[in-house]
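User: quick one, sequence for these C-alpha cells?
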C-alpha cells in the first residue's frame, strides 16, 4: 500500500509515519510537508535511509505538486498538514485559511481527479466549540468553532463531507482531543511547561488555569487513525479521545512535582481571547465500531513525555534557536526530489 501523509514532519504526522513504517512492513509512505516553523526534519531523524519513506518538500496548496504525487498512484491520503496553534490564529488567520481550507480542497480535488482511495481528514474536537461543566462531544454535536483555527478546521470538514456527497469520494473525518508526547513543538501547553520548568523559567497559565482539556497520548491517536484508515466506513466521522480531562493548572502542578520544582514557577498571565472553557470527547463510537482502545494512562504518558524532553536537550535547543532549519537543509539536500523527478 502506498500512502500520502501530509504534514508528516510535524508532531502527530511524524509519530504517525514512524508507527506506520513499524507496524506495516509492506507500506510505502510519501511524506509531503511545507516545513513551516512547525515542520522539523529532526522529527524524522533515523529515517534518512529508510527506502519506504520518501520526503517531499512541498505545499498541499500547490496543485501541480499534489497532482504529480497522486498521479504516481497512491492508495490513501492522510491529511495532517495544517496550521495548528490557536494563539497564532488569533494573531493572524490568513495562513490558517490558506493551508487548512484551500490546502484541504487542493488535496480533495487531487484525490477526485486521480481516483485515489481513502481520504482521511485529521480534524479536531475544537470544531465542536466549548462545553459547560458536564457532557461530552459526540459525532452529532453541532459545529460551533470559536477560534479562527477551529473555524478553518470546521470549514475543511464541511468540504470533505461535500466531496463524499457530491463525488462519492471515500472520505472519513477523525476528530481528536488534545495530544501530547514526543516531538511536540514547545508552543503547546505540555511541552512548553516541561521545557520551561527544565530551564527554571516561569510556566505561563492563561486566566484562572481552570480551563479543561481532554488529553490523549499521540501514540494512541496514531493507532486510532491506523484503525480508521483500514476499518473505518467512508462518510463517517470518528471521535478519538482517552477520557482524560484535566484543568491546565493541575497539569502545571504535576509537571513541577515530577521535576522536583516548586509551584512558585507558575505565572498566571492574561487569558486567551475567546478561550474555550472545557473540551470532553466521547470516543464510544470509535471504540465500538473499530475495536480501538487508548492504552496509555495519562500519568504514565506524561512521565514518559517529561523524560523524553529531558533526554533530548539537543532537539529542544535546536527548536528554540531555530537551528533545526540547518539540519533540515542538510537532510533536504540529500533526500529532496525535484518536481521533474516525481
Ligand atoms: P503541527 O503544527 O505540529 O504540524 C503541522 C505540520 O504541517 C508541520 O510539519 C508543517 O510544516 C506542515 N504544514 C503546514 N502547512 C503546510 C502546507 N501548506 N503544506 C504542507 N505541509 C504543511 O501540528 P500537529 O499538532 O501535528 O497536528 C497535526 C494535525 O492534527 C492538524 O491537522 C491538527 O489540526 C490535528 N489535530 C491536532 C491535535 C493536537 O492536539 N496537536 C489534536 C487534534 C487534531
Ligand atoms: O483539542 C485539540 C486541539 O488541541 C488541537 O486541534 C490543536 O491543534 C492543539 O493546538 C490543541 O489546542 P489547544 O488550544 O487546546 O492547545 P494549547 O496547547 O495551545 O493550549 C492548551 C490549554 O492550555 C488551553 O486551555 C490554553 C492553555 N495554555 C496554553 C498555552 C500555550 C496556557 O494556559 N498557557 C500557555 O502558555
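Assistant:
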Amino acid at each position: 500500500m502506498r500512502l500520502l501523509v501530509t504534514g508528516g514532519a510535524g508532531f502527530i504526522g511524524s509519530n504517525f509515519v514512524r508507527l506506520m513504517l513499524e507496524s506495516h512492513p509492506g507500506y510505502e509512505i510519501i511524506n509531503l510537508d511545507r516545513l513551516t516553523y512547525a515542520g522539523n526534519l529532526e522529527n524524522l531523524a533515523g529515517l534518512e535511509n529508510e527506502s519506504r519513506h520518501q520526503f517531499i518538500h512541498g505545499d498541499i496548496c500547490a496543485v501541480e505538486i499534489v497532482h504529480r504525487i497522486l498521479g504516481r498512484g497512491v492508495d490513501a491520503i492522510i491529511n495532517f498538514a495544517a496550521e495548528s496553534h490557536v494563539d497564532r490564529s488569533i494573531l493572524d488567520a490568513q495562513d490558517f485559511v490558506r493551508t487548512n481550507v484551500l490546502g484541504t480542497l487542493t488535496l480533495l480535488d487531487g484525490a477526485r481527479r486521480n481516483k485515489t482511495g481513502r481520504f482521511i481528514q485529521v480534524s479536531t474536537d475544537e470544531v465542536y466549540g466549548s462545553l459547560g461543566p458536564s457532557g461530552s462531544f459526540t459525532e452529532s454535536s453541532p459545529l460551533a468553532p470559536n477560534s479562527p483555527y477551529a473555524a478553518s478546521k470546521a470549514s475543511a470538514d464541511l468540504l470533505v463531507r461535500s466531496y463524499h456527497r457530491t463525488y462519492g469520494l471515500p472520505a472519513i473525518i477523525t476528530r481528536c482531543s488534545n495530544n501530547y508526547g514526543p516531538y511536540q513543538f514547545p508552543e503547546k501547553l505540555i511541552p512548553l511547561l516541561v521545557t520551561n520548568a527544565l530551564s527554571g523559567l516561569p510556566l505561563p497559565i492563561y486566566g484562572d488555569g481552570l480551563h479543561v482539556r481532554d488529553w490523549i497520548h499521540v501514540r494512541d491517536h496514531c493507532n486510532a487513525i491506523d484503525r480508521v484508515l483500514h476499518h473505518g466506513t467512508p462518510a463517517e466521522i470518528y471521535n478519538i479521545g482517552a477520557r482524560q480531562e484535566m484543568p491546565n493548572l493541575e497539569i502545571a502542578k504535576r509537571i513541577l512535582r515530577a521535576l522536583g520544582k516548586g509551584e512558585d514557577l507558575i505565572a498566571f498571565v492574561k487569558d486567551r481571547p475567546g478561550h474555550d472553557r472545557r473540551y470532553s470527547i466521547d470516543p464510544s463510537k470509535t471504540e465500538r465500531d473499530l475495536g480501538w482502545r487508548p492504552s496509555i494512562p495519562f500519568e504514565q504518558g506524561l512521565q514518559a513525555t517529561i523524560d523524553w524532553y529531558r533526554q533530548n536537550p539537543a532537539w529542544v535547543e535546536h527548536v528554540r534557536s531555530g537551528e533545526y532549519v540547518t539540519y533540515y537543509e542538510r537532510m533536504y539536500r540529500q533526500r529532496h526530489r525535484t518536481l521533474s523527478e516525481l
